[in-house]
Amino acid sequence: MALLPYSLPKSVLFNLDPEAAHELTMAGLARLQNTPLACLWGAQRVNDPVEVAGITFPNRIGMAAGLDKNGRVIDGLGAMGFGFVEVGTVTPKAQPGNPKPRMFRLPEANALINRLGFNNEGLDAFLANVKRAQFRSKGGILGLNIGKNAVTPIENAVDDYLICLEGVYPHADYVTINISSPNTKNLRALQSDEALDDLLGKLQERRQQLIQRHGRTVPMFVKIAPDLDETQVGVIAATLQKNGIDGVIATNTTISRDAVKGLQHAEETGGLSGAPVLEASNRVIRQLRAALGPRFPIIGVGGVMSAADARSKRDAGADLVQIYTGLIYKGPGLVKDCAQALKLG
């Protein structure tokens, strides 16, 4: 932190239940963002502009979706020096998510497991928070991440995505289609070739209508899982290009436990994030880059705990890099470290 060493709040937060610590942090950021006390964690944004998918990003480091599902602390996160912040996943209707406990730390591995299940306050509350945020007016890029309600049958999933796309479109710099969370039943089935082609085709059709209505084109990205083989990655890459999707985010959390076997909580159901996901994510990024060619936008996320990890994403083929679990373990200073490392090459 700028004025407060992260080791102090971390020692307090890591003695709390992980979800309680998360809520306490979100409440603090919400209360103190856009006040003089934001200097406690704030940092000057590294200036390293880069154009990706027609958007000029102030720098190459972003906040991944999932930390701020309701868009409550966009400005609080932005103050840490992120070039872009992605919030959500939002669903059309509010939902509580999965039963607690549903978040677990694996500190020996710098990792987390969560099975939150898209817990959020719904689209209307999300949009109210987004509209209040000042991050975009101060030059930051805002991504809005959309999903489906747990009670919506998978065969009707497209309806939820269309509702969310219509709602977030006027307020987003880009929209992310989340089809890769392991914590909503059957959601990852949308990554299969026919289901993905149908979903993306209908989203693209709706976007064309929204372009006419709003007079602006908002890029659409798709977020995929690390638990895909090379053939599946190739099919997804072809489907993205066929449907005119603007970019891909690789990757979400993993259901694999190979890297954390034997650790406490390792067998908990849910998505594993943090350091153990780095190599799996980088593998998918390399495969995507090979399949998509040199110019298709890729955002790399998964396991970034250091500046060197951020560089490994770039070396694998990512244009931009997001962090999440690294922020929890390493603190806000990680943002500037990574941004500077990517600026320096």
Present the secondary structure layout:
Blueprint: H1 7-13, H2 18-32, E1 50-52, E2 55-57, E3 61-63, H3 74-78, E4 84-90, E5 103-106, E6 111-114, H4 123-132, E7 141-146, H5 157-168, E8 174-178, H6 193-214, E9 220-224, H7 230-242, E10 247-250, E11 271-274, H8 278-292, E12 298-301, H9 307-316, E13 320-323, H10 325-330, H11 333-344
Parallel strand pairs: 3-4, 3-13, 4-7, 7-8, 8-9, 9-10, 10-12, 12-13
Antiparallel strand pairs: 1-2, 5-6, 6-11
Helix pairs in contact: 5-6, 6-7, 7-8, 8-9, 9-11
Question: What does the model show?
Answer:
By secondary structure, the chain is an alpha/beta fold. 51% of the residues are buried. The radius of gyration is 18 Å and the shape is globular. Strand 5 and strand 6 form a beta hairpin. The protein has one domain (7-344): TIM Barrel, CATH 3.20.20. Helix 8 (278-292) packs parallel to helix 9 (307-316). The protein has helices at residues 7-13, 18-32, 74-78, 123-132, 157-168, 193-214, 230-242, 278-292, 307-316, 325-330, 333-344; strands spanning 50-52, 55-57, 61-63, 84-90, 103-106, 111-114, 141-146, 174-178, 220-224, 247-250, 271-274, 298-301, 320-323. The protein has 11 helices and 13 strands. The longest helix is centred in the middle third of the chain and has 22 residues, at 193-214. 37% of the residues lie in helices and 16% in strands. An 8-stranded parallel barrel has the order 3-4-7-8-9-10-12-13, surrounded by 4 helices. Strands 5-6-11 form a 3-stranded antiparallel sheet. A two-stranded antiparallel sheet has the order 1-2.
